[in-house]
Amino acid sequence: MKKRTTKVNSLLIDSEYSSTVLAIGDTFKASPLSLTIAVQKKFPVFFEDPFDFHEFSLFKQEIPIPSPTLVDQKHIHHDSTIDVQSIHVLGVASASQINIGSLDHLFSEARVKHTRIYY
């Protein structure tokens, strides 16, 4: 990958959540990961030992990875600088990435287990 300089004049992110990445410039590889247990309670009951990810099969399951699709492409970078005036992002969620520049490899994983407690 040809090295380039990235200039960003203004960047505003209103909301950012767990395991998000902001990359300004070229990135070779990124692997954001978010494992979440979301608990809804009827009453404010707190436990000494919170939930363990190993208790839920969702976090043990293997994700089937599709075979990569090769795309024949040609890029011509007329300038060695990426020049961005302004970016406004309303929200960035779990295991996601904002990338201003090139990104060669991305593997992103977000798993959320929702559960309710009624006592």
Number of strands: 8
Structural class: mainly beta
Biggest beta sheet attributes = 2 strands, parallel
Q: What's the mean pLDDT score?
A: 87
- Give the low-pLDDT segments: none
What order do the helices and strands follow?
EEEEEEEE
Helical residue percent band:
under 10%
Number of helices: 0
Write up what this structure looks like.
- The protein has 119 residues and is an all-beta fold.
- It contains no helices and eight strands.
- It has strands at 5-13, 21-24, 27-30, 33-41, 81-89, 97-100, 103-106, 109-117.
- The strands form four sheets. The chain has a two-stranded parallel sheet with strand order 1-5.
- The relative contact order is 0.45.
- The mean pLDDT is 87.
Concise structural overview:
The chain has 119 residues and is mostly beta strands.
Fold topology:
Blueprint: E1 5-13, E2 21-24, E3 27-30, E4 33-41, E5 81-89, E6 97-100, E7 103-106, E8 109-117
Parallel strand pairs: 1-5, 2-6, 3-7, 4-8
Annotation keywords:
119 residues, mainly beta, two-stranded parallel ribbon
